[in-house]
Structure formats: C-alpha cells, structure tokens
Amino acid sequence: MPKLKNRFMDEVIRIVRRFMRLELCAVDKVNWHEEPYDKKFNTVDVIMRDRATKDDPNPIRKQLPVLQNFLGGHCGGYNWNPRRGDLVWVFFYGGRQGIVLANAWGWHEYPVCRPSPYDIADKNGQWMMPFFDRSGDFIEQPYPKLKKPYCLRWFHGPVTGTTGKGRDWAWLFDFCTHGDSKPECDGCDDIDCISRDGNRGFKFYSQQTESKVAHPYRDLFFNESGSYWMFDAKCCEDCEECTEKSCCSELFTSGRGFWTIQGALSVQDLKGHIRHYPDGTIEIHSATEFVDYLSEATGARCIVTGPSSQAEYSWQIKDFLANAYAQAFKDGKILIESPTEIELKAPKITLNAGLTEETGNNQVDGSCAHSSCSCPCGGGGGGGAAGSMEEVVAAIQAIQETQAAESSCSESLSNCCISDGEVCTSGGNACCAGSSGSDSMDEAWDSCCSIDGDMVFSDNSPVTTDELSASDRAAIDAMSCCWENEPVTYGSDWLGCI
Hints:
Number of strands: 24
CATH class of the domain at 1-104: Mainly Beta
Structural class: alpha+beta
Oligomer: single chain
C-alpha cells in the first residue's frame, strides 16, 4: 500500500505536467512580421499531434513565440520561423501558453547528409507545400524535397582526433545544381565535389586542403557563366598534390601572389582575362591560354611587366594574329610595327627630335614647307621654300625622266649588235649612222634609223616619231637596239621593246 507521502508527490507531478509539458507539434500557420507595427512577432500556430481524438474541436494553439537569436536592435535581429508542416518542440506552461524551442527531425523531414559528424551543412530552399487532410494533419511523409537550394558547407576532414587535412569552406548561391538534382547530398564529401559548372558561389581552401585540384589557401569566386576570380597564396612547392613535372591546379596559376579575373561563356569556353603575376606583371588579354605570358601567342594583349620580369619589354600592346604591336624596351627604346599601315591623325603632330631618319620613301599628299635642304624641289635658301605638291612632283618627275633617258641611251646603244661595220637593231635593220657607244640623246637619235613601225606602246599601238618629244624619241629609238622582247620601263607612259 503506497504511503501518503508518495501519493501526494504523484498528485503534484500530475498537476505540474498538466501545466508544464514538452510536446511535439506541427506548424499549422506562420504569423511573421510583414508590415510596420502590425503586431505580429514571428509567432506560429501549431496543431497538437498528441490530442485525445483526431476530431478534437480545439486542436490549435495560437500565437506561440519562436525562440529567436535576437541579436538586439529595433527593426533588427536574426529573424526566422519554422515553415508550415515542420515538427517543432513546444514547451507549454500555464495550460495553453507555450514557446517553440526548436525544429525536430523525423520521418517527415530528413536532414542533409554529411561526410562526418562534425561537418557543418546549412542548406535551404523555397518552401514546398506538404499534403494535409481536412483535420490539418500532415499525413503524407516524407514531405517534398527541397529544390533549387543554397548551401553553406564547412568540411571537417578525416576524424582523427587531431589536426590534419580539411577545414575547407564552400558557399553556394542560387542555386546548387548538385543539391537540386540530388537533394540528399550524399556524395558531397569534400570541396572538390562541388563543381563550378553551372554553379555560382565561393570556395575557400584551407592550409591543409583536401582538394586534389587546387593549391592551399586559394580563394575563388565563380559565376554560372564559367567566369571566375581567383587568388593564390601558395606555389607548387607548398602543395602535396603537385610534382616536379606537373601542377595539380585545374585553373592556370603562377603560384603565390597570382590572381586573375577570367571571363568565360562556360567552364570549357574561356574568353579574355586580367592576370597579375608574382613578378608584378599585369596583363589584359582577349584570349586565354594555359601558359605564362612569355609564351602566349593568341588574341590581342596589353601588358605591363614587373621589374624582375624576363621579358625584354617593359610594356607592350600586341595583336598576335596580325603581328602588329607597339612596345617599350627596358632600355627606353620604343618600337611600333605593323604589317600594313600606321595612321596618325590630329590637327597637329609635333616631332621633337634632334634627328628624324627615314629609311624608305616619303610621300606628301598636301603642301610642304621646310628650311633649306638638298631635295629636288629646291627647298631652301635662307627662308625655306614652299610650293604645291603637284609642282614638286612634276619637278621630281622631269628630273627622273631625263636621268632615265640618258641612262637608257647609253645602255641600249652599247648593247646593239654590229653588222658589217654598221650599227643595226636586234631585228637586223641597219641604223643610219653613228657610234654604238654614243651617250648623247641627240647623237642616239641621229645614229639610229626611224622607229616608225618598229616599236609599240604598252597597249600594242604603233609608235611614231610624231607622237614623241625629243627626249622620248631619243630614248625609244635607242631602245630599238635592245634585245628582242626585253621589257623597258620609262616614266609611266610606255613599256618595252617588241
């Protein structure tokens, strides 16, 4: 027979449990703070799962506050609430009054998989409506799986009881393609399991990273397009996965101090980039190769080299395809080269140089003014010379024609054959008189026979003496003694012997 003392204690416990108890309830409604001063404070309505009968006329407990990580501040704090359908632990006191302490896992909602008990996995997504019956109970379990989630991961690494590999961070934004296609996330065992392909987020590799494709202490931000921004703090010598012959990195790097902003249309389709190398070199490049800047050979590039760079130039702008470039050498020399044309356009271009040297021809399509010189245009005297470009060109052309005619006469007459003591053409026609060695145009004209019918213009029309000037007649007549079918160029009017 129980003692009176024990019966009294049992009655007290029953009374306490009636007013103070911990129950597992399901969230029926969320009352979140939506508008200023709307008197909603992130509370929830819950349905009692452990009610006496399913048809209990009053199964709902309303306006239960949710334990918050307040963090302080008017219009601030870390605001959250359970979702409709979630199971929550509720501490009831004073009958119907209670407070939601935490969410509860169960057959309805499974947690995300983790490779070790000490990994951190913060994964969430948009709410998926669970099925509920007319009584408000969520009878179909498990609930729909999260789709298009975000995820924050910290990979602990192997559990050995001491420090070692691991401690990598990954933060995936909308949305993690792996978590969307496989919501359980089994197989997401280390940082390499999270691909850049189709994802966007951050990766922070630890000093003892588990990665097989990245150097320690690497920071990486990547975009869904395949573009990324990467910082490296270690070299191959500091990486256990690298060897003397190969680097483990899946992304191009030059070691500690290297960073790059890489543009892309996909992980495989890389476009232009900006790179900073450990020697201080910075480049902007329209194409991407997995080689050092000294070996690049595609696209167009603008580069400034560091003081310790092995490049011979201090800066360079180059189109590798056209092989057109401008560069400054480290000794101060500047070189500009183009396979086609270089054009400078400005109202005024000033060359401040002690000496301007031109190794080729110079063509001026406008007027020309300069001090005294030895040019054929006669520029000079004390005050310089100026004239139209047409006059200058005409004067130069006249001098060139006279010089060419004199040279042609001498050369052609010396090549004439001798027939029985007389000078004759290569066709066998006798010349009138004169010596085969005459240098004068007049003597050349007098020494050779008529050219009518023997010479043609470049369009094959016959040449007659009436159509020629004295200098032209002398030159062409002398040319009639040249070897048959030997082309002769004089001025811009005619061409060749027949």
